[in-house]
Amino acid sequence: MATVGYAKLPIPGGGDAPVGPGSLAELGLAIDPHLVQHVVDKAERDSQYASAPLHTVVSAEDGSTWVKTSATSNVWATIYEPLPAWRPVSLASGYQAGEFQPQVRLMGQRVHLRGRIVRTDGTVFPVSGVKIGDVPADCRPATYASWAGGSGISGDPVVGVGRVEVLGDVSGSSLGGVGSIVWFSQDGSGVPWVDISGSYWKD
Predict the structure, then answer these.
(1) Count of beta carbons in the 10 Å neighbourhood of residue 173
(2) Residue 184, class by beta-carbon neighbours within 10 Å (0-12 exposed, 13-18 middle, 19+ buried)?
(3) 176 and 132 in contact (C-beta within 8 Å)?
(4) What SS3 state is found at 83?
(5) With contact defined as beta carbons under 8 Å apart, do 128 and 146 qualify?
(6) d(C-alpha 195, C-alpha 183), whole Å
(7) Residues 86, 105: contact at Cβ < 8 Å?
(8) For the whole prediction, is pTM greater than 0.70?
(9) Are the C-beta atoms of residues 71 and 53 closer than 8 Å to each other?
(10) What is the rounded CA–CA span in Å between residue 60 and residue 115?
């Protein structure tokens, strides 16, 4: 049977026997891997298309679109996904939201944090290091994350910036466990609030 196009679709030739149903079935099977497959969500994609051939394209009801990048395992590249919603950050005992709600957003392997934290008793943050919250389990870094975080400068602080860390699987600390958000500063006698705005890679 002859084939046509980049997809090498089978087309009965003039000398082929009149086997219409079989030829149509063969054509359908050849076309199927080149179609955009439809699912409800990523979970259905993984359950129904784990063994699909390389280059299979799947689209979910929310517009998420993936292309399969492995012929032997369930590995996909994301073409498009809707922007995830911001989620709350769990705050440590003795801490509460400040002027801006502490929140986290996970986009692929990138985690974004925003918001401000104050102490519930209105006092300043301890100097050196203190746990102030936790990120969700799916936002924990493989090693650790660290960035400069802003802080209030009322009172005797003069720098107005410290270090924010999120502890990972290999960053042992007496201040907290995996996923703990830790604030470090030696600015004056302590700052009145901490801004956790920053981002890091999970891997």
Answers:
(1) 14
(2) middle
(3) no
(4) coil
(5) no
(6) 10
(7) yes
(8) yes
(9) yes
(10) 32
